[in-house]
From TrEMBL:
It comes from Desulfobaculum bizertense DSM 18034. The gene is purN. GO terms for cellular component: cytosol. GO terms for molecular function: phosphoribosylglycinamide formyltransferase activity. SUPFAM superfamilies: Formyltransferase. The active site is at H108 (proton donor). The record marks D144 as: Raises pKa of active site His. Its EC number is 2.1.2.2. The keyword DNA damage does not apply. Pathway: Purine metabolism; IMP biosynthesis via de novo pathway; N(2)-formyl-N(1)-(5-phospho-D-ribosyl)glycinamide from N(1)-(5-phospho-D-ribosyl)glycinamide (10-formyl THF route): step 1/1. HAMAP family: PurN. This is Phosphoribosylglycinamide formyltransferase. InterPro entries: Formyl_transf_N, Formyl_transf_N_sf, GART, GART_AS. Pfam families: Formyl_trans_N. (6R)-10-formyltetrahydrofolate binds at R64, M89, R90, I91, L92, N106.
């Protein structure tokens, strides 16, 4: 796989993916780490591992479409064709999604279809659910929507808040995102409508 990893923040999921690739667990190469924010720590992480980085400041563009076109150009010019959204906090337009569909995956810190949007951990903690979790899914043109590849559930205990639940979820994000990418790299994932089928491993 020739990956472009898109980040806006800490990049701990990016780190988990880098570590899994460096450990030989995923047959993939990160061709580009792209951020819309200069200050994203994910960019530092990428540089520490010698990975190509690009920052495209979305505020410099008049429209989401213009920003998306600029991203497409950078991603293509780095030779990536699989998009890994890892805490990328911009809504993508059809211009971007149609360019790379169906090879775009995302991680969301909730058990979809519950708690879509940018504050999933806070919303789950506030709702009082007893199970929270995270979801890796293929991306379609609706935010936090496409076919689910893998989910992990974590308990929510008395006294938990957004931060404690969020930290527990994040631990599992770091497990299931590399796992999903490994399956993708092995060519084991097929999509049939809403359903993702995982073929048995050859080993
Ligand atoms: C994660 O919780 C991810 O699910 C969400 O944004 C957060 C990014 O964390 N989409 P990090 O930048 O990977 O540390």
């Amino acid at each position: 796989l020739a990956l472009a990893v898109l980040v806006s923040g800490s990049g701990s999921n990016l780190q988990a993916i880098i570590d899994a690739i460096e450990a030989g667990k995923i047959d993939a190469e990160i061709k580009l780490v792209l951020s819309n924010k200069e200050t994203a720590y994910g960019i530092e992480r990428a540089k520490k591992h010698g990975l190509p980085t690009v920052v495209i400041n979305h505020t410099a563009f008049e429209t989401r479409e213009a920003f998306d076109r600029a991203m497409v150009q950078e991603i293509r010019s780095h030779g990536a064709d699989v998009i890994v959204l890892a805490g990328f906090m911009r809504i993508l337009t059809p211009i971007f999604i149609r360019e790379f569909f169906p090879k775009i995956i995302n991680i969301h810190p909730a058990l979809l279809p519950s708690f879509t949007g940018a504050h999933a951990q806070r919303d789950a903690a506030g709702y009082g659910v007893r199970l929270a979790g995270c979801t890796v899914h293929f991306v379609d043109e609706i935010m936090d929507s496409g076919p689910v590849i893998v989910q992990a559930a974590v308990p929510v205990n008395a006294g938990d808040d957004e931060d404690t639940v969020g930290a527990r979820i994040l631990e599992y994000e770091h497990r299931i995102y590399p796992q999903a990418l490994k399956w993708l790299a092995e060519g084991r994932l097929t999509v049939d409508g809403r359903h993702v089928h995982l073929a048995p491993s050859e080993a």
